[in-house]
UniProtKB/TrEMBL annotation:
Keyword Transferase: yes
Source organism of the structure: Lysinibacillus louembei
Domain Beta-ketoacyl-[acyl-carrier-protein] synthase III N-terminal intervals: 112-190
PANTHER family according to UniProt: 3-OXOACYL-[ACYL-CARRIER-PROTEIN] SYNTHASE 3, BETA-KETOACYL-[ACYL-CARRIER-PROTEIN] SYNTHASE III
InterPro entries on file: ACP_syn_III_C (IPR013747), ACP_syn_III_N (IPR013751), Thiolase-like (IPR016039)
Key words of the record: Acyltransferase, Transferase
Domain Beta-ketoacyl-[acyl-carrier-protein] synthase III C-terminal, chain residue ranges per copy: 239-328
Name under which the protein is recorded: 3-oxoacyl-ACP synthase III family protein
Pfam family, one: ACP_syn_III
Length: 328
């Protein structure tokens, strides 16, 4: 049986880095103290685009070129390109087309975009892995997640403007005979939350037909911890059906949206501190790619090594979350 391993992973982020002090001051001028909020979310610094030349596509291209170089591959050795974003630069053609052209990809290549909000890149890796296991024609896939979240951050809402960061992460998946790589994934979807986070707030047609500004993300206050009981149950089920326990997990790469959520999962499963990687204090919240930037930093720091069992968890607006097991 062939398996799907992660051959390489790399990250691109803008050079511009901001500190939370800027946002504390900005909101103090509005008569609001967001210090406690930022502590709960785990924010310290953020990478943010501050020029007209960068966007979700340019970041994706840079990350893709970096990961190809690391893997010692060229674009014509890639059989599938998936671009994941919730802030795409284009709706047509697909943004993946621009990545394909930039890496000089071959013609017999599957190329498409994915948008499952913050769960998107993890879902793309899971879907690509399963497809590769069933198709004899796809040996390598490039999955790149890129979010320019600060572009749509609402300056009046700390949950967006004082929370979001911009970055891209790219991974190369490759078929192997080694018993490693993708293992399994499990989902939870509760579409009753579909109106909590909207962009554009009233849909494209309502703005475009009236020639109005698309505005910013409309983030309605809601209890984000509502998904945690389901998260606990699904993680446990995923581990059990693959004959593992949390003791077998070497590292957890969770959504970096809120530090408090990571802490609650950690407390529920009694996960040791050394099995948790947190990067939200450096990058801000980077959306679709945040679990994989976490993995990248874990690998770079030596916390994640080849052969380690890694548990992923992340959640997208609406909501949909995915838990995934992957042996690096």
């Amino acid at each position: 049986m062939q398996h799907i391993k992660m051959k390489a992973i790399d990250v691109y982020h803008p050079k511009n880095q901001l500190n939370k002090a800027q946002y504390i001051e900005e909101f103090q001028e509005k008569g609001r103290d967001i210090s406690n909020f930022l502590n709960i979310m785990g924010r310290e610094n953020y990478y943010r685009i501050n020029n007209a030349d960068e966007n979700s596509v340019t970041m994706a291209i840079e990350a893709s070129k970096k990961v190809l170089k690391k893997a010692e591959l060229t674009g014509d050795e890639i059989d599938m390109v998936i671009f994941s974003s919730q802030v795409p630069e284009y709706t047509f053609p697909s943004n993946a087309i621009f990545v394909h052209q930039a890496i000089q990809g071959k013609k017999d290549c599957i190329v498409y975009d994915n948008n499952a909000n913050c769960a998107g890149m993890t879902i793309a890796v899971e879907q690509a892995s399963r497809y590769m296991m069933s198709s004899p024609h796809v040996v390598r896939a490039l999955i790149v997640g890129s979010d320019y979240l600060s572009l749509v951050a609402n300056p009046e809402q700390e949950i967006t403007t004082a929370n979001f960061g911009d970055a891209a992460c790219a991974v190369i998946l490759e078929k192997t005979d080694e018993e490693t790589g993708f293992i399994d994934a499990i989902y939870e979807t509760d579409s009753s939350f579909k109106d909590n986070i909207l962009y554009p707030a009233n849909g494209f047609s309502q703005y475009m037909n009236k020639g109005e500004f698309l505005g910013y993300v409309d983030w309605k206050p809601f209890d984000g911890t509502v998904s945690l009981p389901y998260t606990f149950e699904k993680i446990q089920r995923l581990l059990e059906r693959n004959h593992y326990s949390m003791k077998d997990v070497a590292m957890c790469c969770f959504s970096q949206f809120a530090l408090v959520n990571i802490q609650r999962i950690q407390e529920h499963f009694a996960i040791a501190d050394e099995k948790i990687v947190y990067v939200g204090d450096e990058y801000g919240y980077t959306g679709t790619n945040s679990p994989f930037i976490t993995m990248y930093e874990g690998i770079e720091s030596g916390k994640i090594k080849r052969g380690d069992l890694v548990l992923f968890w992340t959640i997208g607006g609406g909501h949909e979350f995915i838990c995934m097991l992957f042996r690096y």
